[in-house]
């Protein structure tokens, strides 16, 4: 295999992707499969996983809610040997601080932090014993450059960054890299109406130096970089992919 091809290849690697039916997850699954990986997908939605299976890009899949600790254990029991773990599952909420209840804060931690902690806790030790592995935790640019009314979401995503940097130090001697991908705003069905509105277009004009929000495939390159040999000397890093939004 040519040198450049070997850097990008995931041939034969077992790659576990959570949140596999979402916009980021679907693109990641296809990208990893095209790079030669055996992709293992987890999501709580059966239909989209069936579609990925029909497309021939999955080596296995499980359906369930990763907010449930027992399901996290079931995932780790099903696939104890993983070369690349992509903790992509998550969700957000927009609510004022005064209206943010403890239950809503717990909901953000259950969606955006605890599943990653649980899966890393189960799967990272095996990576360390084998002497190789990649962990990619998907946070958000809002963890570092928040906007009003996302305090609970930003707190959970910021905690994920701190968690990742700590385990990066712990597992670096065992040749396991742990990094964060922090996406910015991406186009998708949930925000299509907003970005097509005058307010949305004004936001893009004001805050997006490149003149647009990210496409659905904008994270494929960063994800492949963090999952492959290209990032063997990169750990504890936060890779921001936001089209320049956070420069302001």
Write the SSE topology.
Blueprint: H1 3-8, E1 14-18, H2 23-34, E2 38-43, H3 46-54, E3 60-63, H4 69-78, E4 84-87, H5 102-112, H6 114-130, E5 133-138, H7 151-171, E6 176-183, H8 192-196, H9 198-207, H10 220-227, E7 238-241
Parallel strand pairs: 1-2, 1-4, 2-3, 4-5, 5-6, 6-7
Helix pairs in contact: 4-6, 5-7
Description:
With 248 residues, the protein is α/β, with parallel strands linked by helices. It is 44% helix and 15% strand. The chain is built from ten helices and seven strands. It has helices at residues 3-8, 23-34, 46-54, 69-78, 102-112, 114-130, 151-171, 192-196, 198-207, 220-227; strands at residues 14-18, 38-43, 60-63, 84-87, 133-138, 176-183, 238-241. The chain has a seven-stranded parallel β-sheet, with helices on both faces. Strand 1, helix 2 (23-34) and strand 2 (38-43) form a beta-alpha-beta unit. The radius of gyration is 18 Å and the shape is globular. The N and C termini lie far apart (42 Å).
Q: Which runs of at least 5 residues are low in confidence (pLDDT < 50)?
A: none
Record the strand order, biggest sheet: 3-2-1-4-5-6-7
Count of helical regions: 10
Helix-and-strand structural type: alpha/beta
Report the sheet with the most strands, covering strand number, pairing sense and barrel closure.
7 strands, parallel
| Radius of gyration, taken over Cα atoms and rounded to an integer in Å | 18 Å
Helix content: 40-55%
How far do the termini sit from each other? 42 Å
Order of helices and strands: HEHEHEHEHHEHEHHHE
Count all strands and give the number: 7
Give the overall average pLDDT. Answer: 95
Overall 3D form: globular
- What fraction of residues sit in β-strands? 5-15%
